[in-house]
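Lab channel / #folding
Pinned by the channel admin:
"Please post every new chain as: sequence first, then the structure tokens as a reply. Keep commentary short and put observations after the output so the thread stays searchable."

First post following the new format, from NK:
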Amino acid sequence: MLATLARGMTTSPNRPSDPTPPSDIGGNGRRALVVGATGIGGSALVDLLTAEGWPVTALSRRPIAERPGVRPLSADLRSADDLARVLAAERPTHVFFTAWSRQATEEENISVNGGMVRDLLAAVSHAPVRHVALVTGLKHYLGPFESYGQGAMPDTPFHEEEPRLDAPNFYYAQEDALFAAAARDGFGWSVHRSHTVIGHAVGNAMNMGLTLAVYASICRELGTPFVFPGSLTQWNGLTDMTDATVLADQMLWAATTDAGRNEAFNVVNGDVFRWRWMWARLAAYFGVEPVGPGADPSPLEQRMSGADAVWQRIVRTHELIEPDLSRVASWWHTDADLGREIEVVTDISKARLAGFSVHHRTVDSFTGLFDRYRAERLIPAAPAS
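Reply from TO:
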């Protein structure tokens, strides 16, 4: 119902006009607010928008470093009062919401994450917002963490037109908050359902790219094999992933084209692969021995328990910049993705047919990311030949 109301709305008689002169906001009259600017998706989006000449306000709990074209702001996204205070003078034309906060139960996830979208959009309801882009993910089809991959699910590949699952899901709460605000304030919207986003971020709760790099570095330090921690289903089955730069490209495309307005899109790199193929290539990059899974998964959260001392030794030996293992490895999230006993692959025909044509090879996304982490001394340099 709310999605229907939001679709096609472009104006609201109660919204103030934008008094800011074009000379203050760039030649295209656009100003971006990126919510969750320190995360994987948010970081890539800030890079893309500034490269495209957009003035960017970067909102996060811990502010990013100021740089040309970017003005950092800090706020507690879980506090409606804090958001209202921090954003009172902001007048974005485009809002990109990439944040989430992990809670102990799905009921709490719904309350907190749905509330963050609702309160953020209420806090900018005075602004001349034209479009809001929201990042969610494939839990839209797979179900929440509490019942991940269980019960009735649509067939793969997942398509955007599938009905919602009959289960509580914080992604649905976020969408409903978006649709309600769009109906109230008259902006366009887009929803972007990504799958295992990899990109540049530190301290992120769901960062498989850095997690696997750290795991491989520990294996190399200890002289142990690089054992795939997941299931035989994931090892042998087809899957896909999302490079954060592809996600950023799609969000910007949807926010600035008629074809992307008031639509939900799956977003992945465009290739498919099997982990049994990918694992050997990741191992070769780090100079470790690849080993496939056993009959049952061997989760990293258990296998890497007590690895803090090893990581701190690696940090000292290689003069790395982040000694806190918990800020560079999110074992639980990588275990969840690689331990699934179901096939997970995504259809992206809808975005392709609408005109979004960006394509990446996932192996290149991994190695390019690893190169950047090495250059920034977050993981050790390549071993001497």
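NK: The first strand starts at residue 32 and ends at 35.
TO: also worth noting, The first helix runs from residue 2 to 6.
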